[in-house]
Write a structure and sequence with these properties.
Length: 556
């Protein structure tokens, strides 16, 4: 993030959270009216000192570090103890066409000679710079396998959204070897004199007062400073909570906003009884299936795991901003429908469904699953069986869309530094398990039977797993229970909804129900998690929120 200024005690707008959406809101408000005073409060360190937030290949080194909240979910029984997705929200101002416009606004897209782009689907003057990914040989082979298994190649299908089955190349938020993030909206070339950034500062709660009309109104925030002392900061116009799906409901709860039954046992007075706060937790579950190949030169393992390769790879990024660490280690992507493959499932056939929808609530124009591969071994921290000299591995990843399971985020205590109690609810709905198992079965068939890869696979990695030999959906169910993990797309815990929706936390303007001048702007407001990764929706939410605020206060 940008320069840190000495804070004053009063600001026009206070943004609680320096993540994607929060930085977008702050940046757009500040650039639209230079006389505004905007404060961004961030619990983490200044990102200009955190190399792994700028080096795309360093993403896996962010876990369990100062960049990670280190929130550990409770054990769950489910895991062994052109209609567009956003039209489904049914909320005024949030149609697919409107929301995609805000996502495009954030973007500057840089194409490549080989990439067949859909120009109308991209933006070209936003602070977020992105580009297509140059695939490693293993990914080119997987694309060939995907095509041979009924997923036609369409380079920019993940931008135009018109194909529920196919394969292609989603753009990555990397440009010229540097990872771009929401922080770029208020730092680097977009640093602004009227944005104050406080880092290593935790938001305890929003300060609520009763105005002359007898209404509750947000007037500021209480924070925990780096030295452990508390301070109160005044917002003369609005407070925007942007802590993300795990932290935004905590801030609301500590402020006395939430389910009375959750707050009173912790000694927190309930000022607004909103039962939806912390409910409706959704995520995209993924399953990694790793394979070994004996053929050298297909994967990128030799650039990181063999001998002293990582030292040379790191130096290449430091000196030139090129090479393995200048990219994310994911290659080809695909969408697929599973209607025909699920036709023999008694659970699928018996499940209730709305007209024109499958049991997961999806139309025939929406994919059931996404596939993508790693170009070497690796993923979340539990994957540590690294291939050494002479060994080469890659994965196929299945990602479930339309999951029916829901989880919760609740306070463990009123202490703002205490971690929340998270129950992800993964695979607690039987359909999720059965459909994800079928997705894994198809993903395995792509690798083991597809034209590009069927002759290069030596077996599973590590070899003792033997999942490459699985044939039936039932074979895959135990594997899914054991290996399903998060795609870090948590959302829904401060869900947006209409006025008559008792479980909604914010309205269509992102204003918290029952409170003036308090909004939530991050992926926690998503009421239904669609078939897309949540990074671009987070940018769109930030852009939309800034636009709503600008119109309310006539700031333009």
């Amino acid at each position: 993030m940008g320069s840190i200024y000495t804070p004053t005690e009063e600001y026009d707008f206070i943004v609680c959270g320096g993540g994607t959406a929060g930085c977008v809101v702050a940046g757009r408000l500040a650039e639209g009216n230079p006389s505004l005073r905007v404060l961004v409060i961030e619990a983490g360190q200044h990102n200009e000192h955190l190399e792994n937030t700028q080096m795309a290949g360093g993403w896996s080194q962010l876990f369990d570090k100062e960049t990670d909240w280190n929130i550990v979910a409770d054990e769950g029984a489910g895991i062994n103890d052109r209609r567009q997705d956003y039209d489904d929200w049914g909320l005024e101002g949030w149609s697919g066409e409107e929301f995609f416009g805000y996502m495009r606004k954030a973007e500057t897209f840089h194409t490549k000679e080989w990439f067949d782009e859909s120009t109308k689907c991209h933006g070209y003057d936003g602070p977020l710079h992105n580009e297509p990914h140059d695939c490693a040989p293993i990914s080119e082979l997987i694309l060939k396998s995907m095509v041979s298994k009924g997923m036609p190649l369409d380079h920019d299908m993940f931008s135009h959204g018109e194909r529920p089955q196919g394969c292609g190349h989603p753009p990555r938020t990397v440009h010229q070897g540097i990872r771009t993030t929401g922080a770029d909206f208020i730092t680097k070339n977009h640093q602004k004199h009227n944005v104050t950034i406080l880092v290593e500062t935790h938001v305890d709660k929003v300060i609520l007062q009763t105005n002359a009309q007898g209404e509750l109104q947000a007037t500021g925030v209480q924070v925990i400073k780096p030295d452990g002392t508390t301070a109160r900061l005044v917002a003369t116009k609005e407070v925007i909570v942007s802590g993300g799906a795990y932290c935004s409901p905590n801030i609301l709860n500590r402020s006395g906003i939430g389910a009375r039954s959750d707050l009173e046992p912790l000694g927190i007075s309930t000022l607004v009884d909103l039962p939806g706060v912390g409910r409706n937790l959704m995520d995209h579950l993924i399953v990694f299936m790793f394979y070994e190949t004996a053929q050298a030169g297909l994967t990128n393992d030799h650039l990181v795991y063999h001998g002293d390769a990582l030292q040379h790879t790191y130096q290449q990024w430091k000196d030139e901003k090129t090479g393995f660490l200048s990219t994310f280690p994911f290659g080809a992507f695909a969408y697929a429908r599973l209607d025909e493959r699920m036709a023999d499932s008694e659970l699928w056939k018996a499940a209730p469904r709305r007209p024109g929808r499958d049991p997961m609530g999806l139309t025939p124009r929406q994919p059931n699953v996404e596939f993508f591969n790693t170009e070497c071994y690796g993923g979340p921290k539990q994957y540590e069986h690294f291939p050494v000299d002479g060994e080469h591995a890659f994965s196929m990843i299945a990602e479930l869309f339309g999951a029916q399971s829901r989880g919760t985020v609740q306070l463990n205590s009123a202490d703002p530094l205490d971690r929340p109690k998270v129950d992800c609810g993964y695979l607690t709905h039987p359909l999720d398990l059965e459909v994800l198992a079928e997705a894994c079965r198809l993903g395995n068939e792509i690798v083991m039977e597809g034209k590009g890869t069927r002759d290069i696979v030596k077996g599973s990695w590590p070899p003792e797993l033997n999942h490459h030999e699985y044939k039936t959906r039932e074979d895959w169910i135990p594997y899914v229970k054991e290996h399903a993990t998060t795609c870090y797309h948590a959302s829904g815990t401060c869900a947006m909804g209409k006025k008559d929706n008792a479980n909604a936390v914010v309205d269509e303007a992102l204003v918290v129900k029952g409170i003036k001048n308090l909004r939530v702007a991050d992926c926690s407001i998503i009421p239904i998690l669609g078939g897309a990764h949540t990074q671009m929706p987070a940018y769109g939410i930030g852009e939309k929120c800034a636009d709503l605020i600008t119109k309310k206060w006539n700031l333009a």
